Amino acid sequence: MSIRRMTLEDVSAVAALDKMSFSLPWPERSFRFELTDNPASRCWVYDLDGKIVGMIVAWLLVDEVHIATIATHPEHRKQGIARELLTYALRYMSMEGAVTSFLEVRESNLAAQEMYRKFGYEESGRRKRYYKDTNEDAILMTLTGLESLNSKNY
């Protein structure tokens, strides 16, 4: 197993994983854009014996990390893969100068909210009817103190 940078060769597998994970998945062209045209984007995959079982896309915006998307293959959930990906991304981006992180999460996604809270994310707002498929609210979560992240264990 390894966490490594996402490549263009990974895009179809990543898009398939995204489709398995979300009711509003990103199209393949969005992942290609993140890899080739978005200078703020940082993309990693969790590779398990040549199979992509997890992925994360994050954006470094000045000194903030925005978690754009993170997913784990349904057959490999609850094994700590998302936690490892998020830890890796936050530590990497803290070395690039990030001091805070934020994200949106569906109000019904309690498992993800629980994981984020373990990292120290706190609810900081809501986006009403953010998810167009269900009109569900997004909970905004913020994490501060990334500059001390390398000394924390999750």
CATH topology annotation: Aminopeptidase
Strand content: 35-45%
Query: What is the count of helical runs?
Result: 4
* CATH level 1 name: Alpha Beta
Second-tier CATH architecture: 3-Layer(aba) Sandwich
DSSP E strands, number:
7
SSE succession = EHHEEEHEHEE
Notes on the structure:
The structure is a single chain. The chain has 154 residues and is of the alpha+beta class. It has one domain: Aminopeptidase (3-Layer(aba) Sandwich). The chain contains four helices and seven strands. It has a seven-stranded mixed sheet with strand order 1-2-3-4-5-7-6, sandwiched between helices. The model has no long low-confidence stretch (mean pLDDT 92).
Short characterization:
The chain has 154 residues and is α+β, with helices and mostly antiparallel strands. It has one domain: Gcn5-related N-acetyltransferase (GNAT) (Aminopeptidase), CATH 3.40.630.30.
List keywords for this structure.
154 residues; alpha+beta; Aminopeptidase; 4 helices
Write the layout of secondary structure elements.
Layout: E1 2-5, H1 11-21, H2 28-36, E2 41-48, E3 51-61, E4 64-72, H3 81-95, E5 100-106, H4 110-119, E6 122-131, E7 136-144
Parallel strand pairs: 4-5
Antiparallel strand pairs: 1-2, 2-3, 3-4, 5-7, 6-7
